[in-house]
Amino acid sequence: xxxxxxxxxxxxxxxxxxxxxxxxxxxxxxxxxxxxxxxxxxxxxxxxxxxxxxxxxxxxxxxxxxxxxxxxxxxxxxxxxxxxxxxxxxxxxxxxxxxxxxxxxxxxxxxxxxxxxxxxxxxxxxxxxxxxxxxxxxxxxxxxxxxxxxxxxxxxxxxxxxxxxxxxxxxxxxxxxxxxxxxxxxxxxxxxxxxxxxxxxxxxxxxxxxxxxxxxxxxxxxxxxxxxxxxxxxxxxxxxxxxxxxxxxxxxxxxxxxxxxxxxxxxxxxxxxxxxxxxxxxxxxxxxxxxxxxxxxxxxxxxxxxxxxxxxxxxxxxxxxxxxxxxxxxxxxxxxxxxxxxxxxxxxxxxxxxxxxxxxxxxxxxxxxxxxxx
Length: 374
Description:
Elements: H1 2-23, H2 34-44, H3 58-73, E1 80-81, H4 85-102, H5 106-114, H6 120-139, E2 148-149, H7 152-171, H8 190-207, H9 211-221, H10 225-244, H11 261-278, H12 282-290, H13 294-312, H14 324-373
Antiparallel strand pairs: 1-2
Helix pairs in contact: 1-8, 1-10, 2-13, 3-7, 3-8, 3-12, 4-11, 4-13, 4-14, 5-6, 5-10, 6-9, 6-11, 9-10, 11-14, 12-13
């Protein structure tokens, strides 16, 4: 019961904090958005030159450091990794690419719906479909293998990188790009953003809050535990938007959104499928990074790469819609993800059969020897 209350409280407070961040300056329906904020950091570091989306978002830093502090306090920090690192990097890139077709991560999808953006309603079934497809592979044996214990510095890399980013954000040197217009210029004060990220990072680490995990557990086990957290998040954010005067139901003129339902559906479907294959949504990957998981850090680095690719090639969606090249990319990514999942599942099952075959001859050989001896 305490765990149930804990995740509901974590979800509700996250929803409220997202609205508070909007009050203090973050873009509407974007109190938190892992994809958007990682994209902004990527631009601030010069890895893409889309001027409206460049800023070192303290919320991301806070999420990692909050999870790190919580993991240390509860003796859950453990340096692990080494499980299909390159594949995880690619899955992170694909997650980001799908998110930038929709214009938001799964967390922002919920916040957009809570703000009245009906375009996000098309993305929700796409996200669930992607997760459902991933679950089919999980049930057939898909796995990227178990992570192993790593040197402590491997697990500390993510938190240390976050500290470096925080110093850069506070110093704001001339060689870092900060937007002067567009979504990147809309931001809450650094201290408030960092504090919000720290608090949510701590809560997400303790409650295991994960949007993908919520739907995966529903589909696999009929377990509503994680789902109760994201439901509380949505309800709290919706209530906060209504009370704050930010609730604006409709399809047209929604902030940082487009109305192309098919591509919202398919883009978020990519995020759902890639999240299942990688073992967590973008938010969960950041929390795991704070806990010392090097594989999650590699996935997060993949999202940085994905953001750079999408903006450098002009494939990221905009309020004007989705360009033709990005539509082709969406189809390609769906095919590629299905191929990756199918091949790995086939290889895992093949290895299991080989192990069974190796056991069978040795057993029959022992039986024959015993028969001759008798």
